[in-house]
Amino acid sequence: MSSGAHARDLVDPFDRVVRDLRISVTDRCNFRCTYCMPSEGMQWMPRSEILTFEEIERIARICVERYGFDGIRLTGGEPTIRAHVTTLVAKLAALGVDLALTTNGATLRNSAFDLREAGLSRINISLDTLDREKFAQMTRRDELDNVLAGIQAAKSAGFDPVKINAVVERGVNDDEVVDLARFGRDEGLEMRFIEFMPLDASDEWQRAKVVGQAEIVDMIAAEWAVEQLPARGAAPANMWRYADGAGKVGVIPTVTNPFCGDCDRVRLTADGQFRTCLFATDEFDLRDAMRSGETDDQLAARIEAAVGTKWAGHQINQVNFIRPQRSMSQIGG
Ligand code: SF4
User: Fold this and answer.
1) Whose CA is nearest to atom 5 of ligand 1?
2) C-alpha 120 to ligand 1 mean position (Å)
3) What is the per-residue pLDDT for 282?
4) Mean pLDDT for the chain overall
5) pLDDT in tens, 289-310
6) Which residue has a Cα nearest atom 7 of ligand 1?
7) What was the pLDDT predicted at 133?
8) 310 in contact with ligand 1, CB cutoff 6 A
9) Would you say residue 4 has pLDDT above 80?
10) Is 163 within 8 Å of 154 (Cβ atoms)?
11) 253: which of 138, 257, 270, 310 fits an S-S bond (Cβ 3.0–4.6 Å)?
């Protein structure tokens, strides 16, 4: 589905049509998740280097109007801490795309309705544990109650399904996979488990800490009968349906079952760098190009040139894997 007549598809060297733009609106966050950031010492991007809403809207409009992008996801850091983010949501919703946002949920009880009102169509809320103490350890914030209240606010605001993202780390929260799945079943939420990825700022990722899709599904299937749903196209999650009708559960198996072959995503960082892959080791400036007066045609040419360099997929499972210079909070999920 593309949003109306558009010049042409943006196709990468592996014949994948690019349709989805992930936009990081800030590198800042009100949490300090251990698999993402150190507790102290993160170097924040200077505000002058962060894209304005007008600049973000301009890049998004080029992607939608010229290449038929039909999906935009807002990420961070934590997107809801960017001031007046509902203004940006309204600008992007006006482009007629499927607009989603990923949040840690801590401020959602105050913003869920406004985000929905502004035109947000989908929401993913991160929740890695139901244990208050462990939550404080994993996020370095005592905010579990706020996140749970945020989830309820998202449901009340009409987001359906409300998707919950849980990063599973061996020896940290893998003992809660079944509890989190049960939480999703009981609350009518779509639980999605994410394999731990080598994007933490502290560079402590180890393959041994990865709990793979097979293990996660085995744990769930030992509790409830599940049946795998057909392939998902470009969507990152593999999905299962509970045989007893209690909804769906998913896994995003970036490490053990890469899905790069169907990837339709590109990214825009908060400081205006265009990335063709979450794990890309190079990026293409759009901010200074915009600020130096380039036209939409020139910016579009930069986007096309960048997509023309997109690789087949990440190389986590290869000996020559090089971590991107940026950590997750500086790229956006
Ligand atoms: S790792 Fe890169 S190529 Fe693979 S699915 Fe993610 S963004 Fe796409």
Assistant:
1) 260
2) 24
3) 96
4) 95
5) 999 999 999 999 999 999 999 9
6) 277
7) 97
8) no
9) no
10) no
11) 257
> For residue 282, how far is the Cα from the chain centroid?
19
> Does 6 have pLDDT greater than 70?
no
Tell me, in angstroms, the distance from the centre of ligand 1 to residue 194's CA.
14
Whether residue 279 has its Cβ less than 6 Å from ligand 1:
yes
**20 has which bridge partners?**
71, 265
**Ligand 1 pocket member 255 (CB < 6 A):** no
Task: Please tell me the distance between residue 133's alpha carbon and the centre of ligand 1 in angstroms.
Answer: 33
**Residue 5 has what pLDDT?**
53
Q: Which atom of ligand 1 is nearest to the CA of 262?
A: 5
CB 73 within 8 A of CB 88: no
pTM above 0.85, yes or no: yes
pLDDT-based confidence at 1, cuts 50/70/90?
very low
Closest atom of ligand 1 to 280 CA is: 2
% of the chain surpassing 90 pLDDT: 89
Give 212 Cα–ligand 1 centroid separation in angstroms: 17
Q: Whose CA is nearest to atom 4 of ligand 1?
A: 260
Q: Which atom of ligand 1 is nearest to the CA of 266?
A: 7
Query: Residue 146 corresponds to which tokens in the numbers above?
Result: 């706020």
- Which class does domain 20-331 fall in? alpha beta
Distance 216 CA to ligand 1 centre (A): 21
The predicted-structure confidence for 37-63, as pLDDT tens digits, reads as follows: 888 888 899 999 999 999 999 999 999
